[in-house]
């Protein structure tokens, strides 16, 4: 009964967010403040605002959250009450971030999202990988949030206000402006899993697939892109901050795309893809132009549709097959069994991958082209940052097409014999006969799970045409060629049964191992030293004092014999000793 109530409440709240977005559409921008208090010359309080960006993000959050809540009705039954309660709170926290016009009010939603993500990623707490993934996500995002908090104070004190709509870059000294925006950027990097705080997001995949869809598509990681878009005038006023953002974004998009090309688990590929696609949005924002901001937000919306769709499709694979690793799925794909048994999932996942890869006609094609176009115009004006962004996005587009085609072929089509490292992975994880598995019980998901897939698949196509479809045919032709340059090698390798995964890519450049050696090991050693010092030094003194008291009490106890003669003799000896001592002192 409680679980049902929470499910209804969760779906109802998500639909309410969608309704709110619809009601606010076309309303004149407005702000409202409440619970204000004065501290010296500063006014600290809460404030909300409505504008075009608010409506856009509320629509994205509401639609994705509704799809996730409905999908979860058929997907998850273990600890359902707490799950739906946390998803609803997670959604409410993102809504708080979206409607905030106060940096402190925004901080509340920002931190509540972090706490909810920790609890949701660790939903299957009995699994060690889920517990470790939740802890890693919490610690790495909290590390970035330290800088975020200081950035709020620097900008607020520098501008004399904590109201977002009242932050005037001209009223803030250049040093404080750069310092404040860089500190905020630290929080954004942590929340959106950008280099060097990127490793937590792929390791958060043991959480439920609907949670992954919500985190990757509409909340948490998308909050970083939204924040910079909300404070765009402030960020763009600091050239240093925008340059740092461009470098971080370009390094991240290439790094994450290369990692996705080597991953063998569906959800891990999608996780690295999210890191890469978010970096594309940040690179567009780093241009500091109106066109760049528009391109970033357009790609944010289309990404929410196709990435939410892909994670929900991955959830169906997990739900029906029991694993999202290519090599385990392969036993069902020797004769294309998954494609035939999971027809709706196959079609919708194909649409999602095509949109992610930027295939012409799908939403991702149009939004990615707007980023390339914005970078090209900025580079043509002589901007070095524009050229760096343009080259990085083009390379990433080709890499994206490669891993999308690779995953699509390996999961859904009859696969040739595996070779190399992937075959070794298969040997380690094989649990059944791969040639003739029992597929009699393999069925597509129930309608309550398929309905959100169909809706998001429609959005992954239609959203590309909502923006007016203004195409630069030269850029569109170039992006199409990039898709082919990425997809054809993946097809060629698959058809020959080859799946090259260089050691460097397979180990994700060794960043996780390096972080473990640089941070985890020293902290563990320090913890052991602290425990040893507390146990052997401080504890030794405490135990020694107790032992001394025990020995003293045992000695005094032996003097208590109960013999009166002994007591009198001791008293006389004591008196004589005192008399002798007094005589010595007196002389």
From TrEMBL:
One of its GO terms (biological process) is ATP synthesis coupled electron transport. Its main location: membrane. It holds the Pfam family Proton_antipo_N. Its EC number is 1.6.5.-. InterPro entries: NADHpl_OxRdtase_5_subgr, ND/Mrp_TM, NU5C-like, Proton_antipo_N. One of its GO terms (cellular component) is endomembrane system. GO terms for molecular function: NADH dehydrogenase (ubiquinone) activity; NADH dehydrogenase activity. It is a multi-pass membrane protein. Residues 38-79 form the NADH-Ubiquinone oxidoreductase (complex I) chain 5 N-terminal domain. It is found in: Endomembrane system; Membrane. Residues 100-380 form the NADH:quinone oxidoreductase/Mrp antiporter transmembrane domain. Keywords: Membrane, Oxidoreductase, Transmembrane, Transmembrane helix. The chain crosses the membrane at residues 53-73, 80-99, 105-125, 146-165, 171-190, 211-232, 244-264, 269-288, 308-329, 341-364, 384-403, 445-466, 473-494, 567-586. The keyword rRNA-binding does not apply. This is NADH-quinone oxidoreductase subunit L. It comes from Kribbella capetownensis.
């Amino acid at each position: 009964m409680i679980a049902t109530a929470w499910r209804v409440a969760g779906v109802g709240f998500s639909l309410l967010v969608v309704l709110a977005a619809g009601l606010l559409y076309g309303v004149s921008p407005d702000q409202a403040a409440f619970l204000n208090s004065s501290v010296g010359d500063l006014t600290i309080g809460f404030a909300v605002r409505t504008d075009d960006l608010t409506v856009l993000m509320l629509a994205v959050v509401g639609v994705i959250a509704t799809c996730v809540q409905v999908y979860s009705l058929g997907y998850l039954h273990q600890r359902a009450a707490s799950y739906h309660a946390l998803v609803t709170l997670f959604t409410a926290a993102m809504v708080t971030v979206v409607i905030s016009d106060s940096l402190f009010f925004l901080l509340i939603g920002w931190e509540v999202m972090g706490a909810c993500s920790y609890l949701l990623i660790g939903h299957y707490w009995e699994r060690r990988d889920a517990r470790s993934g939740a802890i890693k996500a919490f610690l790495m995002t909290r590390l970035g949030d330290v800088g975020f908090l200081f950035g709020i104070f620097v900008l607020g004190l520098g501008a004399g206000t904590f109201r977002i709509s009242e932050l005037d870059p001209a009223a803030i000294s250049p040093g404080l402006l750069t310092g404040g925006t860089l500190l905020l950027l630290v929080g954004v990097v942590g929340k959106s899993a950008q280099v060097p705080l990127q490793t937590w997001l792929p390791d958060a995949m043991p959480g439920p697939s609907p949670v992954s869809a919500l985190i990757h598509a509409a909340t948490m990681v998308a909050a970083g892109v939204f924040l910079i878009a909300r404070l765009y005038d402030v960020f763009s006023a600091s050239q240093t901050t925008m340059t740092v953002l461009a470098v971080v974004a370009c390094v991240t998009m290439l790094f994450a795309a290369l990692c996705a090309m080597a991953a063998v688990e569906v959800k891990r590929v999608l996780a690295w893809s999210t890191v890469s696609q978010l970096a594309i949005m940040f690179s567009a924002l780093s241009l500091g132009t109106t066109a760049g901001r528009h391109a970033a937000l357009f790609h944010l919306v289309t990404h929410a549709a196709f990435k939410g769709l892909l994670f929900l499709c991955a959830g169906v694979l997990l739900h029906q097959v029991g694993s999202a690793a290519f090599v385990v799925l392969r036993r069902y794909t020797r004769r294309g069994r998954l494609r035939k048994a999971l027809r709706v999932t196959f079609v919708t996942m194909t649409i999602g991958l095509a949109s992610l890869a930027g295939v012409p006609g799908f939403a991702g094609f149009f939004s990615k082209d707007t980023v390339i176009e914005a970078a090209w115009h900025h580079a043509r004006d002589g901007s070095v940052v524009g050229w760096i962004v343009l080259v990085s996005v083009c390379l990433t587009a080709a890499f994206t097409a490669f891993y999308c085609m690779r995953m699509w072929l390996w999961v859904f089509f009859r696969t040739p014999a595996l070779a190399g490292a992937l075959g070794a992975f298969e040997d380690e994880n094989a649990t059944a006969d791969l040639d003739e598995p029992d597929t009699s019980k393999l069925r597509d998901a129930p309608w309550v799970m398929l309905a959100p897939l169909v809706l998001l698949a429609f959005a992954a196509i239609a959203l590309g045409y909502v923006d007016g479809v203004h195409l630069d045919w030269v850029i569109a032709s170039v992006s199409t060629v990039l898709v082919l340059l990425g997809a054809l090698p993946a097809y060629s390798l698959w058809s020959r049964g080859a799946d090259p995964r260089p050691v460097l890519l397979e180990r994700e450049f060794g960043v996780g191992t390096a972080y473990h050696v640089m941070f985890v090991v020293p902290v563990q050693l320090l913890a052991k030293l602290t425990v040893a010092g507390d146990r052997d030094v401080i504890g030794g003194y405490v135990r020694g004092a107790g032992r001394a008291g025990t020995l003293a009490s045992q000695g005094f106890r032996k003097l208590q014999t109960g013999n009166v003669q002994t007591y009198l003799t001791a008293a006389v000896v004591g008196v004589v000793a005192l008399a002798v001592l007094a005589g010595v002192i007196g002389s």
